[in-house]
What we know:
The chain is of the alpha+beta class.
Amino acid sequence: MTQTNFLIGRGELLTHDIKGPRRNPDKSEVYTLKQSQDRLFDQARDTAVALDALPKGACPNDFGVARFVLNPSYIARSFFPSDLFRAVGLKSIGSRRVTIRPDGWKRKGDPRECSTTEIFVAGKRQAFRSLSDWMLDVDSESDEALDLRRIEQIGVFEPSQRVADAGTEKDRFYEVGIHLLADDGSNFIQQAFTEFAAELGVKIHQDLSFQAGTLWFVPVEGAQEKVLSLSRFVFVRVVRPVPKMRGLLPSVRRSGPAIECSLPAQDPLSSDPRVAILDGGLPKVHPVGRWVRNYRVLDPYSSDDLDGPEHGLAATSAFLFGAIQPEEMAERPYSYVDHLRVLDDGANSEDPLVLYRTLGHVEEVLLSRQYEFINLSIGPDVPMEDTEVHTWTSVIDELLSDGETFMTVAVGNNGLRDAFLRYDRVQVPADSVNAVAVGATNSSDATWRRARYSAKGPGRSPGFIKPDLMAFGGSSKEYFHALVPGVQSELVPLQGTSFAAPNVLRSAVGVRAVLGAGLSPLAIKALLIHAADTNGHETAEVGWGKVPEELMAIIACPSGVARIVYQGELKPGKYLRAPLPLPVGGLTGMVNVKATFTFASATDPQDSASYTRAGLEVTFRPNEGRVKEGKANAEPKSFFKKKKFATEAELRSDSGKWETVLHDQSRMRGTSLDEPAFDIHYNAREGGGAADHAKKIRYALIITVEAPKHPDLYADILSAYARILTPIQPQVSIPIRV
């Protein structure tokens, strides 16, 4: 029997720190100081006048909030105008991306519409009154003057700009996002907002509020006109109706005779993985009790949602067995699972605040740190937007930022909604950068494509590639069969991303069950993305692609292929070199190199334009001997393509740098590779600017080298690095049915 070549581990032992290259700053500027003074003086004066016209109750402690828009040539972290804000007594409290046509820019040709950053700044109204005069007196050689020259616009943050969706006269429940100050002295803002709302006759449900970053999300209740008047409060960032929860079960129901199947008699392959399904509960009678380790109801005083237990059982069935074939034996589960009911009868009674109670339950589970693997197939029935980050996304991203939890999230079944209005985009919280957003394919065979109901990308940038992964979720021609309530093992035909998401979680847990705890959740995420296949479809349709049906396609290396796993830490501002291991004597013929980086990042939800605090600049250097005169490092070769992360109209100077996943491949001649390596630079930012005390981050890197003319590539690499690299051996007996 041919020996199976499993993943090669300990790639991180090959890495070492290097000195970073010199950076030559660009001294040219778009505007002179005089031009900036002429352009911005009236804007600053008009902003102060508008703020002075606001009532005292809308300006707690006499604070005002305004907008500073950066010229598109200066959106990188290093250009953040911190010196300007400090000099005039203002504080940055958030940012978002906007599209403008600047008066000038550094690019060739006439300026055209492009993306840039709009910064929200807070300060005493007196500081805004003094701003215009300060401009005229600033030292022309100072850093503050340089910051001023990089500002494109200054303006008031109009109440209408705070209303993301006015809703209708029938709407009584809204969500308000409120800026807080970065220090702990923000109680006066919350107290003032509470009083401002009370004067308008608007009720605040503060017990259901959430804070993420420096944004305070609070549901309010009142007549539409009165609620929208809250937008006059200067620290309000966004007002929008409270969305409803997604519908649970699709229209497909059982009809005709029962569809039978057989369940395996064995225990799960491994008892080690800690897995939870967060859903609508389980029915009182079901056939999966043998594999459900614990069942817990987060709110014991509430009843089940009408469709909750059936949906919860189907999601649990999808994790345990995948798509079950009628009248056949279901696959053996990889692990036990806990089912936690986070959604209850509030959705059934159309309680508009169930959204917040459910998120509170999800937060409770994530805070407990009990689980490494989690699936969430429920959420708000609202597509993501580019300018603001939703409460659900903000809270979940923050709790996943340590990289210790692999969480799959269904993207939603809204793929057939209005594409022009972008209602077909992934639903929150699938726009999370630290979770794995899963879409559904219409088939499990090689002809698969995105199921028509499955939500599409792109996501927000960063987080542009959405969905992350795809898995079979069923279609009208090929249903996803899952178990139904009852003692007998009977199936129901279904379709939905709710079942594709736990299907991907099953693959992730399968990797852990077979190869053990040596692989981190980040490494498993990288492996699944690395092995995914787009099948020729656009990334907006399928993200990084569909996870292979066979687990061995993820964890094994066929002839002429070596797949190496790197797991380690990155220090902010430092450079790490990750060499690619090659056999003694190198390679001949054409070679394909594929690489996938993943990391988890702390986030700033108040800065949607600079959402992730960590970013990687990765440079591929294929040949150590090709060094230009005067250079310290070998010549780079393009590897990760920026165009994956933005259209030409949206392309930013730092596009792709702040993504938490980088994945690409390059085909080259084997003879062109001589001690090749990836140089990794970890950039850190906070609040859109430089981070003063950034922490180390964990990363995972998967590199595959494919050399068809070297069938013994795997063995030759292990021989060349015998004291460093080693195969990651299975922790369970194989072969297994996958």
